UniProtKB/TrEMBL annotation, chains A, B:
Keyword Mitochondrion: no
EC number: 6.1.1.2
Coiled coil: 346-373
Cellular compartment(s): Cytoplasm
Protein name: Tryptophan--tRNA ligase
Lineage, opening ranks: Archaea, Thermoproteota, Thermoprotei, Sulfolobales, Sulfolobaceae
Length: 386, 386
């Protein structure tokens, strides 16, 4: 008889699974990406005047060809941004992180942004979903995305089932260069996969060729493998290899391992969670680095490295560098209790969500602009990508 | 040491290869289709007043659900026709056969016809072709198809790369129901196939669901396997299983086995072949059932069963039943010489081609109607198939 033991440093990161406590330095080596060095950050700061909190705190920590993107920007050639979303019923805070950072990049570099809404893929991925469902989620998710505050003149949000005509010629050119063997492992497919999912990588790659400039993709590092295929074939079609800037995973409420999951509501804060729900979830589920009793906490202090409320504040919700340092010290020393720390996060979250929902209401007026009538959107509907 | 011997009755029929002398009765058993019986022919004749020469002479000899199509027609529910073409550089006479028969069906039953031009598939199938090439062949082939004389109010000719937006929602629903395993053998694919070809069956099946009526597909019997997949899934999507009416293969000029091939110019008469070329090809290459010398021919007579010029006349070019019988008897008896028989075919072919080319010139004016502006075309551009 024997027991299978998991080594404490074991972790898995693939596009369809994140397990264990991720060692991000190891991941950079495994994936063959580049670390965002202090030099590179300084260079960005020199170009745009400041660094987003997620860059300052290394939430975005890894990249491919970001240096080349900055070269192109400095030379006046420019670049463009591309990200996307597989529509789902209800987005959570984790889903917004890349969009928030992407908005900052757009603001600072004043570049075009393309956001692909994969209503087709989502439908084909899940046996139970209907296309009507994924399209109605697409509508809802687009409102949440617009609420982030993108530039309506320079942002084009498109749904695959609507924009397919414009993308299809370039997609068949991409598809012709990728065999089933090549996409199989990367996209988690096998011979029992449906033929729509097998073709879909061509549609995910197509927007990287929307302009004859370098494309920068901000995304979780788990998405990196998808773009390796693009990098293998882009130049043979006369386009640039897609550059990427990779984020760590905002830890789930329930503990510092893995990532938030839509199927476990207690691991995430949803964008529709009302103040009471946010308070209840944080108080009940948020994994704490504090001590079991107040006495022990005062004596030994809390551990911010494993404390999820602290991590969330650090990743994004407390942007003030002095204030986050203060919180860290007070918590570590035992001066700040777990309940107090949680309350800080609750307040931050609730004011963030209140503002988000206000802007989401406004987005209902703007959806037509981002999808069809805006300056960039109009140009894109007139263009067939070859 | 041993020799591999081919049994005289061995033959192969798949969508991508026809080899040997085809035993069509055996094929009906192998493929599990139905023979077009005399009763079924009589029923068609009663409905529309006459039988096309290709039905009278059993060139169209096999079917699936043709009886159900006639039931629907009799009940006033109706049906629709669907066929297609993978564009190529230069169509030959064999390519026109299904279109000519389809035109007859449309005329007699007064039904809608959809013709899919698979510029995408052709591009992805052949490593050397560019998409610009297959689209320019599409234009040329459409002219030849229009020249056949379809009803411009009831015919919609569409190219995949142009019409994709309208087909894509139903195509992803189809794609979701077909796994790589399922399409692999049928479409001659394997893991080294590109992902575009793997998805393509969904686009070939989509037009069978353009109307909530039964779809009848006239085609060579080698195309039958493609539609078995459609028949497996159609009802689960709320549509009818596609019915088919299958033709034999017009034999290549060079002999009674296999089928015409675009890559061997001496096996086929092209629609652009001028009178001199037609004469030279028939005289030089057309496989004869005659005797080696005039004397022997007069004595023993010719064999119309293996004589290709006779077969071509019988399949289509001599529609008069009395005249073809006369030719057969004269040839079999030795009264008609090989050269005389060939001359009959040459004259028929040349007058057919002359008329075809005249109508092909007129087609340049009509292409806009069949693709975009005609009554059916307009309706189809306003419709998204779900």
């Amino acid at each position: 008889m024997y027991f299978h033991t998991t080594m404490p440093d074991e972790f898995t990161v693939t596009p369809w699974e994140v397990k264990g406590k991720v060692d991000y330095d190891k991941l950079i080596v495994q994936f063959g990406t580049q670390k965002i060095t202090e030099e590179l950050k300084q260079r960005m700061k020199n170009l745009v005047g400041e660094l987003h909190v997620m860059l300052r705190r290394n939430v975005f920590f890894s990249h491919r060809d970001l240096d080349l993107v900055l070269n192109d920007y400095e030379k006046g050639k420019g670049f463009f941004l591309y990200t996307g979303r597989a529509p789902s019923l209800g987005m959570h805070i984790g889903h917004l992180i890349p969009f928030i950072f992407t908005k900052w990049l757009q603001d600072k570099f004043n570049v075009n942004l393309y956001i692909e809404i994969t209503d087709d893929e989502k439908f084909m991925r899940n046996p139970e979903y209907t296309l009507d469902q994924t399209r109605s989620w697409a509508y809802d998710n687009i409102l949440d995305i617009i609420a982030v505050g993108f530039n309506p003149d320079k942002t084009f949000i498109f749904q695959d089932t609507e924009y397919i005509r414009n993308m299809y010629p370039i997609a068949v050119k991409i598809a012709k260069k990728l065999t089933f063997s090549e996409v199989r492992a990367t996209f988690g497919l096998d011979v029992s996969s449906n033929i729509g999912l097998i073709f879909y990588p061509a549609l995910q790659i197509a927007p990287t060729m929307f302009e004859k400039k370098r494309c920068l993709i901000p995304a979780g590092i788990d998405q990196d493998p998808y773009w390796r295929l693009q990098r293998d074939i882009a130049e043979s079609l006369g386009y640039y290899k897609a550059a990427q800037i990779h984020s760590k995973f905002l830890p789930p409420l329930t503990g510092p391992e893995g990532k938030m999951s839509s199927s476990n509501p207690e691991t995430a804060i949803y964008l529709v969670d009302d103040p009471k729900t946010v308070e209840r979830k944080i108080m009940k589920y948020a994994f704490s680095g504090g001590q079991p009793t107040i006495e022990l906490h005062r004596k030994y202090g809390g551990n911010p490295e494993i404390d999820v409320p602290f991590q969330w504040l650090y990743y994004f919700f407390e942007e003030d560098d002095n204030r986050i340092k203060e919180i860290e010290e007070e918590y570590r020393s035992g001066k700040m209790l777990t309940g107090e720390l949680k309350q800080i996060l609750i307040d931050k979250l609730n004011s963030f969500l209140e503002e988000h929902r206000r802007r989401r209401e406004e987005a209902k007026e703007l959806i037509q602009v981002f999808k069809y009538d805006g300056k960039l959107a109009k140009q894109m509907w007139e263009k067939i990508h070859e």
